[in-house]
Amino acid sequence: MGVGVMSMNMDKKTYARYVEARAPRSPLIKNCVHAFLVGGGICLVAEGIIQLLTGVAKLSRDAASAWAAIILVGVAVLLTALGVFDRIAQFAGGGTLLPITGFANAVASPAIDSRSEGLVLGVGAKIFTVAGPVLLYGTAAGVIYGIIYWICTLIFR
User: Are 46 and 105 in contact (CB under 8 A)?
Assistant: First the structure.
């Protein structure tokens, strides 16, 4: 009896157990170490840029932080366009998602993938397919939490 025939006669719970028993186990500790090292490395590079800009260029900490973010976003978009970011993310897992570089990749990747469809219908339409919901719900959550905070300050003065 083939897998397809077997799964058609199973209920959802039985099939879930069947898949779980046959799915390869993820090396959790190794994945966590990779994520920690790459994510920490990205943050270390950012801090290095900030130190360089505050020390050599004599920028304020806020200005240097803004420039560090801009540089990291630019590098992430460039690495995404070259296909390197995906290989780093495959090794690092969540380590590339948490810093700002993951968001840059999420915005750039669909746009780069659809550039053959043109600037408007390709890049323009697809650029926010992944990041759009994050922006929408992040903004909505910020507004809701802001209203709740404002009401709490009125009540608990």
Answer: no
CA angle (92, 94, 96) in 5-degree steps: 65
- Any idea how long the chain is? 157
How far is the C-alpha of 85 from the C-alpha of 100, rounded, in Å?
Answer: 13
Q: What is the CA radius of gyration of the chain?
A: 22
The encoded tokens of residue 118 equal 């043109």
Closest Cα partner for 130 from 154, 108, 156, 147? Answer: 108
DSSP 46-84: HHHHHHHHHHTS---HHHHHHHHHHHHHHHHHHHHHHTH
CA distance 84 to 138: 28
How confident is the model over 55-112, as pLDDT tens digits? 999 999 999 999 999 999 999 999 998 999 999 999 998 898 866 898 888 888 888 8
Sequence-distant (≥ 6) Cβ neighbours of residue 82 within 8 angstroms: none
Q: State how far the Cα of 157 lies from the Cα of 148, in Å rounded to an integer.
A: 14
Dist CA 17 CA 12 (whole Å): 9
Record the tokens describing residue 13, joined without a space.
């719970």
